[in-house]
Design a protein that fits this description.
The structure is a homotetramer of 119-residue chains. By secondary structure, chain A is mainly α. Chain A starts with 5 loop residues before the first helix and ends in a 10-residue tail after the last helix.
Chain lengths: 119, 119, 119, 119
Protein backbone atom coordinates (compact mmCIF):
# COMPACT_ATOMS: atom_id res chain seq x y z
CA UNK A 1 0.00 0.00 0.00
CA UNK A 2 1.89 3.05 -1.24
CA UNK A 3 -0.81 5.71 -1.45
CA UNK A 4 -4.54 6.14 -1.02
CA UNK A 5 -6.27 7.98 -3.85
CA UNK A 6 -8.67 9.97 -1.71
CA UNK A 7 -10.04 11.90 -4.66
CA UNK A 8 -11.16 8.71 -6.37
CA UNK A 9 -12.53 7.10 -3.20
CA UNK A 10 -14.41 10.24 -2.24
CA UNK A 11 -15.99 10.42 -5.65
CA UNK A 12 -17.17 6.79 -5.46
CA UNK A 13 -18.44 7.20 -1.89
CA UNK A 14 -20.14 10.55 -2.57
CA UNK A 15 -21.91 9.09 -5.55
CA UNK A 16 -23.11 6.12 -3.45
CA UNK A 17 -24.48 8.49 -0.80
CA UNK A 18 -26.09 10.89 -3.25
CA UNK A 19 -27.95 8.12 -5.04
CA UNK A 20 -29.47 7.11 -1.69
CA UNK A 21 -30.04 10.70 -0.51
CA UNK A 22 -28.20 9.88 2.71
CA UNK A 23 -26.24 13.09 3.14
CA UNK A 24 -29.18 14.49 5.13
CA UNK A 25 -28.14 12.10 7.96
CA UNK A 26 -24.42 12.91 7.74
CA UNK A 27 -23.84 15.73 10.17
CA UNK A 28 -20.29 15.54 11.49
CA UNK A 29 -21.75 14.64 14.90
CA UNK A 30 -23.60 11.65 13.42
CA UNK A 31 -20.59 10.62 11.34
CA UNK A 32 -18.45 10.56 14.50
CA UNK A 33 -20.98 8.18 16.06
CA UNK A 34 -20.98 5.96 12.96
CA UNK A 35 -17.17 5.95 12.98
CA UNK A 36 -17.14 4.77 16.59
CA UNK A 37 -19.67 2.04 15.81
CA UNK A 38 -17.54 0.72 12.94
CA UNK A 39 -14.43 0.86 15.10
CA UNK A 40 -16.16 -1.30 17.68
CA UNK A 41 -16.97 -3.85 15.01
CA UNK A 42 -13.22 -4.13 14.51
CA UNK A 43 -12.67 -4.41 18.27
CA UNK A 44 -15.34 -7.15 18.41
CA UNK A 45 -13.21 -9.32 16.10
CA UNK A 46 -10.35 -9.26 18.61
CA UNK A 47 -12.14 -9.10 21.98
CA UNK A 48 -11.70 -12.77 22.92
CA UNK A 49 -8.50 -13.45 20.95
CA UNK A 50 -5.07 -13.73 22.52
CA UNK A 51 -2.70 -10.94 21.47
CA UNK A 52 -0.53 -13.39 19.54
CA UNK A 53 -3.53 -14.74 17.64
CA UNK A 54 -4.60 -11.21 16.71
CA UNK A 55 -1.24 -10.83 15.02
CA UNK A 56 -2.11 -13.65 12.67
CA UNK A 57 -4.65 -11.76 10.53
CA UNK A 58 -2.35 -11.70 7.51
CA UNK A 59 -2.23 -15.51 7.33
CA UNK A 60 -5.86 -16.25 8.09
CA UNK A 61 -7.99 -15.46 5.00
CA UNK A 62 -11.34 -15.63 6.81
CA UNK A 63 -10.17 -13.34 9.61
CA UNK A 64 -8.48 -11.04 7.11
CA UNK A 65 -11.69 -10.66 5.09
CA UNK A 66 -13.54 -9.49 8.22
CA UNK A 67 -10.78 -7.05 9.17
CA UNK A 68 -10.72 -5.69 5.62
CA UNK A 69 -14.43 -4.90 5.73
CA UNK A 70 -14.20 -3.06 9.03
CA UNK A 71 -11.09 -1.11 8.02
CA UNK A 72 -12.95 -0.01 4.88
CA UNK A 73 -15.99 1.17 6.82
CA UNK A 74 -13.78 3.04 9.27
CA UNK A 75 -11.82 4.71 6.49
CA UNK A 76 -14.99 5.74 4.64
CA UNK A 77 -16.39 7.58 7.66
CA UNK A 78 -13.00 9.01 8.61
CA UNK A 79 -12.47 10.40 5.10
CA UNK A 80 -15.96 11.88 5.09
CA UNK A 81 -15.43 13.62 8.45
CA UNK A 82 -12.04 14.92 7.29
CA UNK A 83 -13.46 16.35 4.06
CA UNK A 84 -16.46 17.97 5.77
CA UNK A 85 -14.08 19.44 8.36
CA UNK A 86 -11.58 20.76 5.82
CA UNK A 87 -8.83 18.57 7.25
CA UNK A 88 -5.97 17.25 5.12
CA UNK A 89 -5.05 13.89 6.60
CA UNK A 90 -1.46 13.63 5.33
CA UNK A 91 -0.27 16.99 6.57
CA UNK A 92 -2.19 16.62 9.86
CA UNK A 93 -0.52 13.30 10.59
CA UNK A 94 2.89 14.81 9.93
CA UNK A 95 2.26 17.65 12.39
CA UNK A 96 0.82 15.27 14.95
CA UNK A 97 3.93 13.08 14.88
CA UNK A 98 6.07 16.16 15.38
CA UNK A 99 3.99 17.15 18.40
CA UNK A 100 4.13 13.62 19.79
CA UNK A 101 7.90 13.59 19.43
CA UNK A 102 7.99 16.47 21.91
CA UNK A 103 5.36 15.04 24.24
CA UNK A 104 7.14 11.70 24.40
CA UNK A 105 10.88 12.34 24.48
CA UNK A 106 12.81 9.21 23.49
CA UNK A 107 14.83 9.03 26.69
CA UNK A 108 11.70 9.03 28.91
CA UNK A 109 9.34 7.06 26.71
CA UNK A 110 11.63 4.27 25.59
CA UNK A 111 10.05 0.86 26.24
CA UNK A 112 7.39 2.48 28.36
CA UNK A 113 3.74 2.69 27.34
CA UNK A 114 2.64 5.13 30.01
CA UNK A 115 0.69 8.22 28.98
CA UNK A 116 2.75 11.39 28.63
CA UNK A 117 0.95 12.85 31.67
CA UNK A 118 2.48 10.03 33.72
CA UNK A 119 6.01 10.26 32.29
CA UNK B 1 -6.87 16.43 -0.14
CA UNK B 2 -6.16 14.42 -3.29
CA UNK B 3 -4.09 11.53 -2.01
CA UNK B 4 -2.50 10.21 1.17
CA UNK B 5 1.11 9.14 0.83
CA UNK B 6 0.90 6.09 3.06
CA UNK B 7 4.45 5.03 2.33
CA UNK B 8 5.81 8.33 3.66
CA UNK B 9 3.49 8.44 6.67
CA UNK B 10 4.25 4.86 7.58
CA UNK B 11 7.95 5.52 7.45
CA UNK B 12 7.64 8.55 9.76
CA UNK B 13 5.35 6.71 12.16
CA UNK B 14 7.45 3.52 12.18
CA UNK B 15 10.53 5.52 12.94
CA UNK B 16 8.77 7.28 15.82
CA UNK B 17 7.69 3.93 17.26
CA UNK B 18 11.04 2.24 16.79
CA UNK B 19 12.93 5.02 18.55
CA UNK B 20 10.65 4.47 21.56
CA UNK B 21 10.66 0.67 21.32
CA UNK B 22 6.87 0.69 21.37
CA UNK B 23 6.19 -2.01 18.81
CA UNK B 24 6.25 -4.58 21.64
CA UNK B 25 2.88 -3.12 22.76
CA UNK B 26 1.39 -3.02 19.26
CA UNK B 27 -0.38 -6.34 18.81
CA UNK B 28 -3.31 -5.89 16.44
CA UNK B 29 -5.62 -6.50 19.40
CA UNK B 30 -4.06 -3.64 21.36
CA UNK B 31 -4.03 -1.38 18.31
CA UNK B 32 -7.77 -1.96 17.84
CA UNK B 33 -8.29 -0.81 21.45
CA UNK B 34 -6.14 2.28 20.90
CA UNK B 35 -8.05 3.05 17.71
CA UNK B 36 -11.35 2.92 19.58
CA UNK B 37 -9.98 5.16 22.33
CA UNK B 38 -8.89 7.78 19.78
CA UNK B 39 -12.25 7.56 18.00
CA UNK B 40 -13.98 8.31 21.29
CA UNK B 41 -11.84 11.39 21.71
CA UNK B 42 -13.36 12.59 18.43
CA UNK B 43 -16.86 11.67 19.65
CA UNK B 44 -16.20 13.60 22.87
CA UNK B 45 -15.75 16.81 20.86
CA UNK B 46 -19.28 16.49 19.49
CA UNK B 47 -21.19 14.83 22.33
CA UNK B 48 -22.95 17.96 23.61
CA UNK B 49 -23.02 19.91 20.33
CA UNK B 50 -26.12 20.31 18.19
CA UNK B 51 -25.85 18.58 14.81
CA UNK B 52 -25.82 21.93 13.00
CA UNK B 53 -23.00 23.21 15.20
CA UNK B 54 -20.96 20.08 14.51
CA UNK B 55 -21.13 21.00 10.83
CA UNK B 56 -19.30 24.21 11.55
CA UNK B 57 -15.84 22.69 12.17
CA UNK B 58 -14.44 24.12 8.93
CA UNK B 59 -15.10 27.70 10.07
CA UNK B 60 -14.07 27.38 13.70
CA UNK B 61 -10.25 27.28 13.93
CA UNK B 62 -10.15 26.15 17.57
CA UNK B 63 -12.61 23.33 16.96
CA UNK B 64 -10.89 22.41 13.71
CA UNK B 65 -7.52 22.09 15.44
CA UNK B 66 -8.99 19.58 17.92
CA UNK B 67 -10.66 17.58 15.16
CA UNK B 68 -7.42 17.57 13.18
CA UNK B 69 -5.52 16.04 16.08
CA UNK B 70 -8.04 13.27 16.64
CA UNK B 71 -8.33 12.46 12.91
CA UNK B 72 -4.54 12.14 12.82
CA UNK B 73 -4.43 9.77 15.78
CA UNK B 74 -7.22 7.67 14.29
CA UNK B 75 -5.51 7.49 10.92
CA UNK B 76 -2.17 6.53 12.46
CA UNK B 77 -3.64 3.52 14.27
CA UNK B 78 -5.84 2.56 11.33
CA UNK B 79 -2.86 2.60 8.95
CA UNK B 80 -0.83 0.53 11.37
CA UNK B 81 -3.55 -2.08 11.74
CA UNK B 82 -4.00 -2.21 7.95
CA UNK B 83 -0.30 -2.69 7.31
CA UNK B 84 0.08 -5.37 10.00
CA UNK B 85 -2.98 -7.14 8.58
CA UNK B 86 -1.80 -6.96 4.98
CA UNK B 87 -4.83 -4.87 4.01
CA UNK B 88 -4.71 -2.37 1.13
CA UNK B 89 -7.10 0.41 2.12
CA UNK B 90 -7.86 1.80 -1.34
CA UNK B 91 -8.82 -1.48 -2.99
CA UNK B 92 -10.73 -2.64 0.13
CA UNK B 93 -12.84 0.50 0.16
CA UNK B 94 -13.68 0.04 -3.50
CA UNK B 95 -14.86 -3.56 -2.93
CA UNK B 96 -16.79 -2.53 0.17
CA UNK B 97 -18.71 0.13 -1.74
CA UNK B 98 -19.58 -2.42 -4.39
CA UNK B 99 -20.90 -4.78 -1.73
CA UNK B 100 -22.86 -2.00 -0.07
CA UNK B 101 -24.43 -1.09 -3.39
CA UNK B 102 -25.99 -4.54 -3.44
CA UNK B 103 -26.93 -4.58 0.24
CA UNK B 104 -28.64 -1.20 -0.05
CA UNK B 105 -30.44 -1.06 -3.41
CA UNK B 106 -31.20 2.55 -4.35
CA UNK B 107 -34.96 2.03 -4.68
CA UNK B 108 -35.27 0.63 -1.13
CA UNK B 109 -32.63 2.70 0.63
CA UNK B 110 -33.40 6.12 -0.81
CA UNK B 111 -33.83 8.71 1.97
CA UNK B 112 -33.98 5.94 4.55
CA UNK B 113 -31.30 5.36 7.15
CA UNK B 114 -32.50 1.96 8.35
CA UNK B 115 -30.05 -0.91 8.49
CA UNK B 116 -30.12 -3.27 5.53
CA UNK B 117 -31.47 -6.03 7.80
CA UNK B 118 -34.55 -3.82 8.30
CA UNK B 119 -35.04 -2.81 4.66
CA UNK C 1 -36.45 1.11 39.31
CA UNK C 2 -35.57 1.47 43.01
CA UNK C 3 -32.65 -0.89 43.42
CA UNK C 4 -30.60 -3.42 41.50
CA UNK C 5 -30.06 -6.73 43.26
CA UNK C 6 -26.47 -7.25 42.16
CA UNK C 7 -26.06 -10.36 44.25
CA UNK C 8 -28.90 -12.10 42.42
CA UNK C 9 -27.85 -10.88 38.96
CA UNK C 10 -24.26 -11.89 39.55
CA UNK C 11 -25.30 -15.35 40.61
CA UNK C 12 -27.43 -15.81 37.46
CA UNK C 13 -24.71 -14.41 35.19
CA UNK C 14 -21.90 -16.39 36.84
CA UNK C 15 -23.89 -19.57 36.47
CA UNK C 16 -24.50 -18.84 32.76
CA UNK C 17 -20.76 -18.28 32.23
CA UNK C 18 -19.64 -21.29 34.24
CA UNK C 19 -21.94 -23.66 32.33
CA UNK C 20 -20.27 -22.49 29.10
CA UNK C 21 -16.75 -22.40 30.55
CA UNK C 22 -16.36 -18.82 29.32
CA UNK C 23 -14.52 -17.34 32.28
CA UNK C 24 -11.24 -18.30 30.60
CA UNK C 25 -11.92 -15.46 28.09
CA UNK C 26 -12.93 -12.91 30.73
CA UNK C 27 -9.76 -11.09 31.66
CA UNK C 28 -10.62 -7.54 32.74
CA UNK C 29 -8.89 -6.30 29.58
CA UNK C 30 -11.16 -8.43 27.38
CA UNK C 31 -14.23 -7.48 29.40
CA UNK C 32 -13.44 -3.79 28.85
CA UNK C 33 -13.37 -4.46 25.09
CA UNK C 34 -16.68 -6.33 25.24
CA UNK C 35 -18.20 -3.50 27.27
CA UNK C 36 -17.18 -0.97 24.62
CA UNK C 37 -18.59 -3.17 21.85
CA UNK C 38 -21.96 -3.39 23.61
CA UNK C 39 -21.96 0.35 24.25
CA UNK C 40 -21.48 0.94 20.54
CA UNK C 41 -24.49 -1.24 19.82
CA UNK C 42 -26.47 1.24 21.91
CA UNK C 43 -24.88 4.17 20.03
CA UNK C 44 -25.79 2.50 16.73
CA UNK C 45 -29.49 2.71 17.62
CA UNK C 46 -29.24 6.49 17.88
CA UNK C 47 -26.61 7.39 15.28
CA UNK C 48 -29.00 8.63 12.58
CA UNK C 49 -31.85 9.75 14.88
CA UNK C 50 -32.57 13.37 15.70
CA UNK C 51 -32.01 14.20 19.38
CA UNK C 52 -35.74 14.74 19.94
CA UNK C 53 -36.57 11.35 18.42
CA UNK C 54 -34.00 9.66 20.67
CA UNK C 55 -35.98 11.01 23.62
CA UNK C 56 -38.99 9.02 22.52
CA UNK C 57 -37.70 5.57 23.51
CA UNK C 58 -40.20 5.28 26.37
CA UNK C 59 -43.17 5.52 24.00
CA UNK C 60 -41.87 3.38 21.16
CA UNK C 61 -42.07 -0.31 22.16
CA UNK C 62 -39.90 -1.58 19.29
CA UNK C 63 -37.17 0.96 20.00
CA UNK C 64 -37.47 0.39 23.74
CA UNK C 65 -36.98 -3.37 23.32
CA UNK C 66 -33.71 -2.76 21.46
CA UNK C 67 -32.48 -0.28 24.07
CA UNK C 68 -33.40 -2.69 26.85
CA UNK C 69 -31.26 -5.43 25.33
CA UNK C 70 -28.22 -3.21 24.94
CA UNK C 71 -28.55 -1.73 28.45
CA UNK C 72 -28.66 -5.29 29.80
CA UNK C 73 -25.52 -6.34 27.95
CA UNK C 74 -23.71 -3.21 29.10
CA UNK C 75 -24.74 -3.72 32.70
CA UNK C 76 -23.70 -7.39 32.66
CA UNK C 77 -20.15 -6.56 31.55
CA UNK C 78 -19.92 -3.52 33.82
CA UNK C 79 -20.99 -5.57 36.85
CA UNK C 80 -18.49 -8.29 35.97
CA UNK C 81 -15.62 -5.80 35.66
CA UNK C 82 -16.62 -4.15 38.94
CA UNK C 83 -16.74 -7.46 40.82
CA UNK C 84 -13.42 -8.67 39.40
CA UNK C 85 -11.87 -5.30 40.30
CA UNK C 86 -13.25 -5.24 43.83
CA UNK C 87 -15.22 -2.07 43.09
CA UNK C 88 -18.48 -1.25 44.89
CA UNK C 89 -20.56 0.68 42.36
CA UNK C 90 -22.85 2.51 44.78
CA UNK C 91 -20.16 3.97 47.01
CA UNK C 92 -17.92 4.77 44.02
CA UNK C 93 -20.67 6.74 42.31
CA UNK C 94 -21.27 8.73 45.48
CA UNK C 95 -17.57 9.67 45.78
CA UNK C 96 -17.41 10.50 42.06
CA UNK C 97 -20.31 12.92 42.30
CA UNK C 98 -18.62 14.61 45.26
CA UNK C 99 -15.44 15.00 43.21
CA UNK C 100 -17.37 16.30 40.22
CA UNK C 101 -19.10 18.88 42.41
CA UNK C 102 -15.66 20.36 43.09
CA UNK C 103 -14.42 20.07 39.49
CA UNK C 104 -17.54 21.75 38.14
CA UNK C 105 -18.52 24.54 40.54
CA UNK C 106 -22.16 25.56 40.00
CA UNK C 107 -21.37 29.20 39.28
CA UNK C 108 -18.93 28.35 36.46
CA UNK C 109 -20.64 25.28 35.04
CA UNK C 110 -24.25 26.47 34.99
CA UNK C 111 -25.81 25.97 31.55
CA UNK C 112 -22.39 25.27 30.09
CA UNK C 113 -21.29 21.86 28.81
CA UNK C 114 -17.60 22.61 28.43
CA UNK C 115 -15.10 20.26 29.99
CA UNK C 116 -13.74 21.30 33.36
CA UNK C 117 -10.31 21.87 31.80
CA UNK C 118 -11.93 24.60 29.67
CA UNK C 119 -13.93 26.28 32.45
CA UNK D 1 -21.53 -5.35 46.59
CA UNK D 2 -25.00 -6.77 47.30
CA UNK D 3 -27.30 -4.16 45.80
CA UNK D 4 -27.22 -0.76 44.13
CA UNK D 5 -29.64 1.79 45.55
CA UNK D 6 -30.63 3.36 42.23
CA UNK D 7 -33.22 5.59 43.82
CA UNK D 8 -30.62 7.23 46.05
CA UNK D 9 -27.98 7.51 43.30
CA UNK D 10 -30.48 8.94 40.85
CA UNK D 11 -31.54 11.56 43.36
CA UNK D 12 -27.92 12.63 43.99
CA UNK D 13 -27.09 12.67 40.27
CA UNK D 14 -30.29 14.48 39.28
CA UNK D 15 -29.65 17.12 41.87
CA UNK D 16 -26.07 17.60 40.58
CA UNK D 17 -27.37 18.01 37.01
CA UNK D 18 -30.23 20.32 37.94
CA UNK D 19 -27.97 22.68 39.87
CA UNK D 20 -25.83 23.02 36.71
CA UNK D 21 -28.81 23.17 34.32
CA UNK D 22 -27.25 20.39 32.27
CA UNK D 23 -30.35 18.38 31.47
CA UNK D 24 -30.77 20.49 28.32
CA UNK D 25 -27.74 18.61 26.87
CA UNK D 26 -28.94 15.16 27.97
CA UNK D 27 -30.94 13.82 25.06
CA UNK D 28 -30.71 10.03 25.03
CA UNK D 29 -28.66 10.31 21.83
CA UNK D 30 -26.11 12.56 23.55
CA UNK D 31 -26.06 10.39 26.67
CA UNK D 32 -25.25 7.34 24.52
CA UNK D 33 -22.26 9.25 23.12
CA UNK D 34 -21.11 10.25 26.60
CA UNK D 35 -21.48 6.66 27.76
CA UNK D 36 -19.25 5.45 24.93
CA UNK D 37 -16.66 8.12 25.72
CA UNK D 38 -16.50 7.03 29.36
CA UNK D 39 -16.28 3.39 28.35
CA UNK D 40 -13.27 4.21 26.21
CA UNK D 41 -11.60 5.84 29.17
CA UNK D 42 -11.87 2.45 30.87
CA UNK D 43 -10.51 0.72 27.76
CA UNK D 44 -7.62 3.20 27.71
CA UNK D 45 -6.47 1.95 31.12
CA UNK D 46 -6.04 -1.57 29.73
CA UNK D 47 -4.98 -0.97 26.11
CA UNK D 48 -1.28 -1.68 26.58
CA UNK D 49 -1.55 -4.06 29.56
CA UNK D 50 -1.18 -7.82 29.28
CA UNK D 51 -4.36 -9.73 30.06
CA UNK D 52 -2.86 -11.18 33.23
CA UNK D 53 -1.85 -7.71 34.45
CA UNK D 54 -5.36 -6.39 33.81
CA UNK D 55 -6.59 -9.03 36.26
CA UNK D 56 -4.55 -7.44 39.00
CA UNK D 57 -6.73 -4.34 39.52
CA UNK D 58 -7.95 -5.54 42.91
CA UNK D 59 -4.41 -5.57 44.34
CA UNK D 60 -3.11 -2.37 42.78
CA UNK D 61 -4.59 0.63 44.64
CA UNK D 62 -3.52 3.21 42.03
CA UNK D 63 -4.96 1.19 39.17
CA UNK D 64 -8.08 0.39 41.17
CA UNK D 65 -8.72 4.08 41.87
CA UNK D 66 -8.69 4.82 38.13
CA UNK D 67 -10.97 1.89 37.34
CA UNK D 68 -13.35 2.98 40.09
CA UNK D 69 -13.69 6.45 38.58
CA UNK D 70 -14.45 5.16 35.11
CA UNK D 71 -16.93 2.54 36.35
CA UNK D 72 -18.73 5.31 38.23
CA UNK D 73 -18.95 7.55 35.17
CA UNK D 74 -20.20 4.65 33.06
CA UNK D 75 -22.83 3.69 35.62
CA UNK D 76 -24.04 7.28 35.97
CA UNK D 77 -24.73 7.61 32.23
CA UNK D 78 -26.14 4.10 31.96
CA UNK D 79 -28.57 4.73 34.82
CA UNK D 80 -29.63 8.02 33.27
CA UNK D 81 -30.30 6.43 29.88
CA UNK D 82 -32.22 3.59 31.54
CA UNK D 83 -34.42 5.95 33.55
CA UNK D 84 -35.13 8.24 30.56
CA UNK D 85 -35.97 5.13 28.50
CA UNK D 86 -38.26 3.60 31.13
CA UNK D 87 -35.99 0.56 31.39
CA UNK D 88 -35.72 -1.47 34.61
CA UNK D 89 -32.16 -2.81 34.65
CA UNK D 90 -32.68 -5.77 36.98
CA UNK D 91 -35.61 -7.33 35.15
CA UNK D 92 -34.06 -6.58 31.73
CA UNK D 93 -30.85 -8.38 32.66
CA UNK D 94 -32.82 -11.40 33.84
CA UNK D 95 -34.73 -11.63 30.52
CA UNK D 96 -31.52 -11.08 28.54
CA UNK D 97 -29.78 -13.97 30.26
CA UNK D 98 -32.78 -16.18 29.50
CA UNK D 99 -32.59 -15.21 25.83
CA UNK D 100 -28.84 -15.78 25.76
CA UNK D 101 -29.30 -19.24 27.26
CA UNK D 102 -31.29 -20.15 24.14
CA UNK D 103 -28.97 -18.40 21.70
CA UNK D 104 -25.92 -20.12 23.17
CA UNK D 105 -26.88 -23.71 24.06
CA UNK D 106 -24.39 -25.17 26.54
CA UNK D 107 -23.45 -28.13 24.33
CA UNK D 108 -22.49 -25.89 21.38
CA UNK D 109 -21.05 -22.92 23.26
CA UNK D 110 -18.96 -24.73 25.86
CA UNK D 111 -15.38 -23.42 25.89
CA UNK D 112 -16.00 -21.58 22.64
CA UNK D 113 -16.12 -17.81 22.33
CA UNK D 114 -17.53 -17.66 18.81
CA UNK D 115 -20.58 -15.49 18.15
CA UNK D 116 -23.89 -17.35 18.08
CA UNK D 117 -24.18 -16.63 14.35
CA UNK D 118 -21.02 -18.74 13.90
CA UNK D 119 -22.03 -21.62 16.18
Amino acid sequence: MKTIDVEKLNSVVSNFIEERDWDQFHSIKNLSMALSVETSELVEIFQWLKEEDSNNVKNDPKLKAKVEEEISDIFIYLMRIAIKSGVDIESSVLSKIEKNSEKYPVEKARGNARKYTDL
